Amino acid sequence: MDFIRVRELHKTFVYYRKGAGLKNSLKNLFARKALVKEAVKSVSFDIGPGECVGFLGPNGAGKTTTLKMLSGILYPTSGEANVLGYVPWERKNEFKRLFSIVMGQKNQLWWDLPASESIYLNKCIYDVDDDVYRRSLAELSEMLEVEELLDVQVRRLSLGERMKMELIAALIHRPRLLYLDEPTIGLDFPSQKKVREFLKYYNEQFGATILLTSHYMKDVEDLCKRTIIINEGNLLYDGELHKINDLFNEQKIIRLHFSEPVAEQRLAKFGKIVSGDEYNVVLELPKHRLKEVSRAVLDSFPIVDWTIEDVPIEESISMLYRKESVG
Amino acid sequence: MNRRKLYTAVFSMGVQHSMEYRVHFFLGLIGAMFPILVQYFIWTAVYQHSGQDALFSYSYGQIIMYTILAGLVSKLIATQFEHQIADDIKNGGLNKYLIKPISYFGYRLISFFGQKAIYYGITVMLLVGIIWFAASGGVLKVEAVRLVLFAITLWGALLLNFLIAYCICASAFYLHEISYFFVITSLLVNILSGGMFPLEIFGDSVVKALQYTPFPYTIYFPVNVLSGKTEVAAMYQGLLIQCGWIVLFFLLSRFAWHVSMKKYSAVGG
Amino acid sequence: MRLYGLFIKNCLIAQMEFRGNFMMSLIVESVYLLAKLLYVLVVFRTDLHVDGIPPEGLLLFIGMHTVMTGIYVGVFFTNFMKIPEYIKDGSLDLMLTKPVSLQFMASLRYVDLALPIPDILVGFVMIGIGWHAMDIPLTFLQLAGFGLLLFIGVIITYCLMIIPALLSFWFVQTGSVSEIAHSVWDANNFPMAIYPAWVRRIGTFVIPLFLITNFGPMFLLGQLNWLYGGLALTASLVLFAVVRLLWNQAVKGYSSASS
To answer: Which chain B residues are Cβ-neighbours of C179 within 8 angstroms?
Structure first.
C-alpha cells in the first residue's frame, strides 16, 4: 500500500489586483476584478513508506502549496490525496499525530524560553508518554549535539542551533512522516551538513518517510534518491535525481586550458561557448560530436590541460524548467 | 539647496501619508465618539440628579460642549510619530538624516503638519457644524474674536503638543524599552491637558497649579476660548502664555536633542 | 486542561525574564486605571445617584467593570492582538497541524500576568467597599451568584472581543476595529441605567455588552430577577456557539483561499 497517494491535485486561489491611487481604490470598492491563479495545476504521485523524496522547483512553482495541502493546512480546489490512510484536510487529530512539518522560515519555538520548554509543550500537545519523551529527547539531542543548549533561551541560539531545536521539537512525537520546507535555508555549511546527516539518519533509523523541498541541490542530492520536480503547478519530472541528465544526455562539457592566447571565435564552430577568455574556454556540445571535436581541438590548439564533464544537474534542471513538461 | 522646495516636498509626503491612513482616521473618529457619548450620558445623569444649574462652574450645555470639543481636539493634536522616532534612534534610521543636509527636527515638524493638514480641515468642518448647531440651540454665543483666537490657539496647541512629544522622544536615546513609556506619557498628558474631563473636577487648587504647566494650553485652553468660559482678558494672557511655552519647549527640545545627538554620534548609535 | 496550565507556566517564565517590562506593564495598566478612577472622582464629587443607587453602590459597577477589564487584558487581550499576526506571518499554518483545537491554541495561548494585577486588585477593593456600604449580606448564595455572573461575563467578553480579531481572516487592517471595540468596552463603566432605554436595549439584546458587568452588581442589589439571569446564561451559551461557528467558517475560508 502506498504511504502517500496524490491524484490530480489542483489548487487555485482568487486574488484582486488594485491599481495605485484613490480612484482605483474607489473603483475596487464597487467592482473588483477577481483574478484566478493556479498554484498547483494537476499533480499526481505516490510515495512509499520510508522513502525520502526531494521536491524541487523554482520559487512560486507550487511546492509549498502542495506541502500545505498534504499536511491539511489548505483545502485543494479539486483532486484527492490520501496520506497514511487519512484525507489530510479533514484534519483528524489521529492524522496530525502521525506527521510533522518543519518550515525553515517559520519557527514554533518560544523565543524567550529555553527550547526544552517548547519541546515539553509539544510533548503535551501530542500526548507523548513520559518514557518515550525522555528517551526521544536524549536521543535526538545527542544526535544533533545540542544537549547543553536545551536550557538556553531560544533567542540566544544561533540560526543553526535554532534549526536543530526546531527539528527536535518537530520529532519529539516520533512522526512517521516528516515534511520539510527548506530546512537548511540561511544556515552555514557545517550546520547544513549536520542537519542533512541527521535527517538521513532519522530516515534510515526510524524508517520515517521524508518529503523535502530545498533550493540547495546538495540537500536533495545527499538525502533523496528520488526527486519530484514541478514548475508553474505542473509535474515535470519524477525519478532519480541523477537520471535527469539522461534526458539531456546528448550534451557534454569540455574545459580547455591553453598555453598561449587563443581567439575565442576560432572555437565557435566546435560547439556552444559557455564561458571563457583567451586562456580558458568551456564548450558545450552534443555527445556524438565529442570524439571528432576532441581530436580537432587537440590537434590545432596549444592545449595545456583539458577535461570532459557531464552537464551539471543544476543546469539540467534549469533546462527542464524552460522546456516545460517532458514525457 | 532650495529649502522651501524641500519642505514643500516633505509636507506633501505627509499629506499623502495621511491619505493612506484616512480610513484609520475616520474609524478613529468613530472610536473617539463612544467615550464622548458615554460621558454625555454620565453628565446628563449627573445634572438631572443634582438639580443644580452649574457643577464645577459649568452649565449643562457647557459641559457637553466641552466634552465634545475636547474629544475632537485631543484627536486632532494627537501625535503618532513617537514610535517612528524611537525606531529611528534604536535601529540607526537616524543616520540617514545625519548624513543628509536636512534637519531632523524640521523634517519631523513639517511632515507632522502635512499629516495633520487634512485632519485639520475635516475637524474644522466638524467644528463648524457643531458650533452652528450649538449656536442655534442657544448653548454657545458665537463671537468672531473667539473664533479667530480659537483657530490660532489650535495651531499653537498643535505646535506645543508636537514639541512636548518631541522632547519626550529624546528619552529614547537613554531608555531601553520605550513603547510603554510613550503610552504612559501620552495618556498622562491627555488627562492633565483636560482631554478627558474639564480640569475643574480635580478641584480649584489643582486647576491653579496646572496653570503653571504647559498641558492645559493644548486642549483645555483652546476649548474654553471657543466656549466662552475664558474671560476676554484671560484669553489674550493665555495666548501669550501659550506662545511662551512654545518658545520654551522649542529651546528645550533643541537642547535635549543637541545633547543626546552628541552622545549618539559619540557612541556610534 | 493540563495544556493550559503549561501555557500559563511558560508565560510566567517568559515574563520573569524581563523584569523591567513586567514593571512597565504594571505601570501602564495603573495609568489606565487612574484614568478610569477619574470617573469615580466625578461620581463622588457630584454625589451622583443613579436609579436611587448612591455613589458607594456605583462602586460595585465600576469595580466589576475594572475586574473584568483586568481579566480581559490578562487572559484575552494579548491573544486577540496576535491572531492577525498569526494570519499575516503564517504561524497559523503550523498551529493547524497540531492535534489540539486550533481555536484554543490561537486564542488562549498567552497569559499576561502583569497587566491585570492593578485592575483586579483595585476592582475587588471597590466591590468590597460597595458591598460593605450597601449592607449586602455576605452569604454563600450571594457569593455564588456573583461568581457565576462574573464567569458568564468572562465568556461573553471572550465572544464579543474576539470578533475584531476574527475579522482579520477577511480583512487586512483591523486595528481600528478593535480600537473601536475597546472604546465601546468602556461604556460598561457605569450601570446601564444611566443610558436611555434604546441604548440599553441595544446593549442587552443586540450586542449583549451590558450583560458583562451589569448583572453581577444588579444581582447583589436585588435588582435582577430570574428571567434576566436566565437570559444572561442563555446569551453566553448562544454567543459561544456563534463564535465557534464563525471561527470554523473563518478557518475554512482561510485554508481554501490562501496560498
So the answer is: 27-28, 31
